[in-house]
Protein: Vitellogenin domain-containing protein
Organism: Halocaridina rubra
Amino acid sequence: MTKRRSLLFLGVLAVVRAVPWSADIPLCSEECAITSTPKYKYAEEKTYSYSYSGNSHVFLEGVEGAVTQTSWKTQVDLTWLSPCDMAISIKTPTIENIPGNSDTSLMERYPLVVAITDGIVQHVCSHPSEDTWSLNIKKGIASLLQNSLPALISSGQNITEQDVVGTCPTIYGVDNQGFKVVVTKEKDHSLCKDRYLTKSEIPVAWLHAPFPVDQSRSLCLQEIVNGIPVNITCQDENIIRPSYGFYKYIRAFQVATLEFQSDTNDPSPSIANIGDHLIKRSLLYDHQTPKKDQSIIIHLEEALKEICESTLETINQDSAQLLSRVIQYMRKAPGETVVEMLKKIRRGHFCSAYKKLEELFLDAIGFIHESGAVAVMIDELLSGNVPPSRNILYISALHLTPRPSLQAIEALKNLFSSSHPSPLTTLAAASMVNTYCRLNEGCEQRAPVIEILQILGTKIERECSSVYDPGAQKAALANLKALGNMGVINTHYSRALIRCIERGDADISIRVAAAQAFRNANCRREVTSTLSSIAADPNFETEIRLASYLEAIKCANENHLKMMIRRITKEKNTQGEEARGFILTHLQNIQSSTTQEKAHLRKLLMNTILPGNYSLDFRKYSSHIDLSHYFSSLGTGAGLETNIIFSPGYFVPSSLEFNLTAVVGGVLTNIGEMGLHFRGIDPILNQLFGPEGYFRSSFQKIWQDIKESSIKTGLKIVEEIQETLRRRRSINFNIIHRLLEKLYGKMNAKDPQLLTFLRFMGQEYYFASKQHDGYFININQLIEEFFNSLRDYIEDLKSKNIITARNLNIHFDYSLPTIQGVPLKLTLSASAVAEFKVASRLNLFRLLSDLRNSDNFFSIHPSLSFHLEGFVGYDSFLVEKGLKVRGSIYNSEGISFNIKTKNGNQIEMEVNLPDKMEFINIESEAYLMKQRHGSSEEKIIPRSVRENRIRYNSCTQILVPALGLMVCYNVNVPNLFLSEGLPLGRKSIVKLTLEKVDRSLKGYYMEAQLYNNNDYWTAMIHLMTSEPSPPKEAQVTLSYFQRSHSCKVYAAIQSNSISGGIWITLIDHPQEKSIEAFLRYTTYQLELIRRIRLEVTMAGDTSEREFDIRLFASPDTEYTASSLLLEWKCIYKFRGQDIKFDAIGVNSNALKKYIDYHFGVGIDITLRPYNFLPILVNVRLCEFYLNFKDWLITSFLRKYGDDQFKYTAKVMKQHIQFFALDTTHVIEGTISDFFVVKSVITTTINKSYIAKIDIYYELTKTGISTNVTRSDDPMGVIAFEVLVSRTHESTHANIIVG
């Protein structure tokens, strides 16, 4: 159809040649002002054809030959519709010399109309059906053509221009070569603004999480002949480094060339497809998700069917990867697909046993972030049948949806219209509206947003009027906070909020929330003036005034500031003092602030002298504390602001608020806020700590009350345990007395109230209002509630059958725009599927209290599947290339048992195991790849990758004789020290399994007899396999004996093939502590005897203590002189607050054959008065020697004089020095007081590095100064200095990084 339309267009054009062919084509420019000497001299109604070619490379630096690359070539037509309108058309694209397919034809279909004035792009206009990836490539072509110079004569200009990369400072260079002018453009992308979609995405990449962008820059070369660009070459480079100092990193390099071929008077054929309704867009990279693909539904249904069928019994190793694939498909499918798939699942379309698939699908919906998923989440939340964990998941999903659509906002209306929505859900939905409005200008004119605002506003007007209805107050608090999250308020509802603030009979918390509802709204002069007046009016309560002030100050102009300062200066009453102190400290902090966000207010207050006649005692008066600093040279900073607000007549703050911010790359991020608001706390504290308070009584009385309450609380717990075992429901609490009741007594004041809120990135995630009936915590009630819950849980075990599967998915997706419009993608996706199956007929009450006759069953089967995938590289939709990392973890276990008791001391238990239990199954790989859309993935492993792998694949038979089980392991991983080319290479595998030797083995049968006395406990256990025949049998004995200063534990096993046992003796004597173990293990071919003993002997008194530690080991039943393996000795000497500590240690005999070491330490410590913190004051001895295989490590410390120390350490392998460290420290002063430490540290690893470090801790100076140099480079590696100097008048901070 498109081809026929193009031919018809050209035919008509040939007939009516006299009529301008661009007359009926819609234009993009809104104005066209061309100078008399334009830089570009393109002719109107002509088409200029260019060859557009390029290639992109992704290198893994540090690995030879590790690169994946792609080349492309196409024809680009620039059709000039008017002097200021240019249409960019793409024709016959090829990728690696392969002609285009149906995917590339999408790029050829629609031209992009560019509004360009003398080389400067104003904006672009695209067809509504143009897909995002194609649009960005054409924006890249427009960016290559852009030239923002006023004229082609001056060089070295730094011009800020907007292109597909962002709004960037651009350094222009001009080389006039007569008939040809060469223009260079250079950008450092780290200085660009508008580079990412939202503010929340800006700091992440540059803060080294999840992938750090170390460098990002582009360079363009434009050759202009007679006003026509004949050759434009642009290269773009990005370096992604895992961390500072890593020598292996990703370097992504891309170059594109636009070369002039010819011109013609005919339009490009695709001009016929421009259409009548173009969408105006900026030249910035378009972050919107690609167009929905109807064809993806087939793949989605296949994946859902595979999940349903493969998880009927239990989840498998691929379950997490499959579910991750389903989530990716649903993001690309049309919005209504999510609802349709859920209906099909519930109809059993994919499999009849669909409950497990339904649970996994409902969890997955929380990670899709598309409009269809929002509709399902809202329906599920309103149904009230969502489990708590999924409720939290859906709330988080609404908060964190990155790019909500208008359809998603439409789906929120049902939630806001609900009569009793969850407050936290309402906050999350409002947060999504805020995200939508932040990304879409004029959102307040969209119908769904208007309707939501009307619903919220109507509720608030009604609820603020119902001041005596507690239910209305709680609802008003939730709706006001939701309105604050949304940040969209029109004039009508602004006035309604003001009326709510001014309503004196309303609860203060409601009025404060009404003021804070303006926190994300756009500035309105009328609102700012009213809030400023309230802040300056002493007739309002302190909290109302300060809440209004904090919102007004964000939008205040010079008149507002003058009015507030003038009025609060005149206040002298007590109520005014509370507010004026806070406002004045806040204004003073603005004057001294260094952050860019407060620069406007700082300028307005520059010549203002604020009054200082207010109290600075923040323990009694309201104040604002600002601990923040911004380093303009680094573009970074951080701050913590604290609001302390007192109400008149109270000595406890009525409000505490904390706000943590960070500045990265010049962008301020509000990381988090927390608020605490108190009501009715003062009377409690007065009775506790006041003149007649409880804590004014004697310490002996308080201690006695604590002991009595602790004893009775303990008795209460014992009683509850006994009641639980007897399964009685009536509990008598009259015998219990409460410590806190003694503290608080009886009070008639208003019940205390606590209000809290938490905000993250400017959005409120949580708030709560807690009010207690009384002034004490009822310990008995807490105990009762705990044991009631425990009893209910134990009762549930009598008949319980749980099969639940849950899903968790984390997805990070960052697109770094390049000058060519093809993004550099940084993605990380992790998916986990967990299944938990429990079947129980367990009467735990009877099992614990009566061993006579009972029959119990319990089965548990947990499984986990985890999949991780990361990608760094270019993704143009047509071709994906870069570094990919994949990993998976799988775990599947299970056990079931029947328990029978009889005769009061006998237990029979039958245990069943699955044929195979996978304790751990890990697979991972990293490789370079290239994949054309619709084709299979091509892995690229460079020839330089040479792997030396560690392989273990075996099964141990140690459990076979007694249990018929074998433990198998499979390890196939690269040797980190001998392999070349890491992290690239073959797949790494680590597996550990427990398997039955004979699959006919069903399980185990155990019969136990218990004997119990005051001094001993013994269990005789007869263990046998239930199948096959003849069964394997074993006799197990467990014993415990206790004496006055010792106890013994004994465990033995006897079967027809093995026998053995272990005896452990513990001695706890005042002068001696020891533990001894004796092991005997006998089979047909082996007899193993081992005895080991660790003893500690102590001697001395309170002023001097000596400890001797010895370790003995013997291959026989007795110890000999050669059995001593190591000996340590420690001596403590106490002299008041001074402690001398000496320790030595050596090894000997058999241990010395494997490892030879000795050490010695002698130090002096002093304890600080009052807090008793140990401070090191002297090192008399510090030596260490270790010889292990080919490695030799030596170190020692020597003291020279009173203030100089020298420390030396060496590491050698096979008599070759591997590492050396020499340090010299000069200490002036004492460590326990003020001191200066000057150190020179020389480190040698191949090359020598010398670090000079000075540490100051003095009355006038505190900080650190560091300078690191290399032996062959005296210019230095790094210099770092942080010093704070103090005088009586001021404190000065100096920070230098070089």
About this structure: The chain has 28 helices and 50 strands. The longest strand covers residues 854-875. The first helix runs from residue 2 to 15.
